[in-house]
Design brief:
Elements: H1 21-43, E1 64-68, E2 74-76, E3 79-80, H2 84-96, E4 103-107, H3 113-126, E5 131-133
Parallel strand pairs: 1-4, 4-5
Antiparallel strand pairs: 1-2, 2-3
Helix pairs in contact: 2-3
Length: 142
């Protein structure tokens, strides 16, 4: 930034005008950079992923265990369910109990998520407050 002096023939006045063109250029470049990077920052959601751990839980006899086999069929304890309507009917009856039992889902590792998703959706429709997943701990030593 230089100060521009007028004619030097006896005119001792100093012109103090600043050339703002480079400043505007820099500000426009910064604006463009911010406009490009802000959507990338707002769409990347920070999540805390679960860690593998062994949690000892007490299994209560009133808990409901719903299993999903590799083909996606659902079972109420050991009895196969006829369809989603039967599952929803049983879950609505379970939701009426006081205190409400916990629904535990046992999904086969090779089963598609579709079968487990239907159970979760039915639990939500029935008003089940507590749904958990039964898993196996990781193999020791690795």
């Amino acid at each position: 930034m230089a100060m521009n002096r007028g004619p030097s023939e006896g005119d001792d006045e100093v012109m103090s005008a600043i050339n703002t063109t480079p400043l505007v250029d820099v500000m426009l470049v910064l604006l463009i950079i911010f406009l490009i990077t802000i959507p990338a920052v707002t769409t990347s959601i920070k999540v805390s992923l679960p860690k593998q751990r062994v949690e000892v839980r007490e299994t209560k006899p009133e808990n409901i265990i719903i299993s999903v086999d590799p083909s996606g069929r659902s079972y109420w304890f050991d009895a196969p369910l006829a369809g989603p309507d039967e599952l929803l009917k049983r879950l609505k009856q379970t939701a009426q109990m006081q205190p409400q039992p916990e629904v535990q889902i046992r999904g086969d590792a090779s089963a598609r998520y579709d079968g487990v998703g239907r159970i979760l959706y039915a639990c939500q429709l029935a008003g089940i407050a507590k749904v958990t997943f039964i898993t196996e701990p990781p193999a020791s030593g690795g």
